[in-house]
Design a protein that fits this description.
Largest sheet: 2 strands, antiparallel
Number of helices: 9
Helix content: 55-70%
Shape: elongated
Oligomer: single chain
Strand order of the largest sheet: 1-4
């Protein structure tokens, strides 16, 4: 008996709904734990402290961007892992590089656009920049989302400063570039991650030999 030439991947409606609900939880948690900036600004208005409030706000936003990136990547890895295991193609855990290669092979150009795959690659690069200041991730992100960056002062240059200032992120980025993000960016990424599942087709047919070659590398 000949092996099936293609492998089918099934996107079940209830599974997609579950993934979307998990992603929605990120925004719920973000707003439930968000600082009351106006209240804190009033409370510490007369104190000679560095800009701790801005740091806390930024850290809170970055934390939830990292949570989102990790959650979506885990969802896709689990989905692909389960499908490949069911087809007896793979048993070992997948890494993100293999997942992205699978998406590039399995999805058509139209599906890639509808499912916001480009935005989710930006999310992956953004998470890498936040965590480590990875130079290659910075370069990729600058090409796709230059609006996420702003060039600021050299954190080692104290000339012209009025009062104490702290920038705990500047040292991560090349040429002292720091990120310029808002909670709207987080919400847009959440929508893109949900859109990935909502716009996924019911089935994907992928060449079996291609899959075997990817897994074998």
């Amino acid at each position: 008996m000949e092996e099936i030439a293609t492998v089918k991947f099934y996107f079940w409606a209830d599974q997609k709904d579950q993934y979307c609900e998990q992603l929605t939880d990120i925004s719920r948690i973000y707003f439930d734990t968000k600082l009351d900036q106006a209240k804190l600004a009033t409370r510490y208005a007369d104190q000679q402290t560095p800009d701790f409030l801005d740091i806390e706000t930024t850290t809170h936003l970055y934390t939830h961007i990292l949570m989102l990136a990790q959650l979506w990547q885990q969802q896709v890895a689990d989905f692909v892992q389960h499908q490949l295991t069911q087809q007896k193609i793979i048993g070992a855990a997948l890494n993100y590089r293999l997942v992205t290669r699978f998406l590039s092979v399995a999805l058509t150009a139209d599906e890639t656009q509808k499912m916001d795959v480009a935005a989710l690659q930006q999310l992956h690069d953004l998470a890498a920049v936040i965590k480590t200041g990875n130079d290659r991730a910075i370069q990729r992100l600058r090409k796709s989302r230059a609006d996420f960056f702003q060039i600021t002062h050299d954190p080692r240059d104290f000339s012209g400063r009025i009062g104490p200032q702290i920038d705990i992120f500047a040292a991560l980025y090349a040429n002292h570039a720091v990120l310029k993000l808002s909670e709207l960016d987080l919400l847009n990424f959440i929508n893109s991650a949900k859109n990935f599942w909502q716009q996924a087709p019911e089935t994907l047919a992928v060449d079996r030999e291609t899959l075997l070659a990817m897994v074998a590398e």
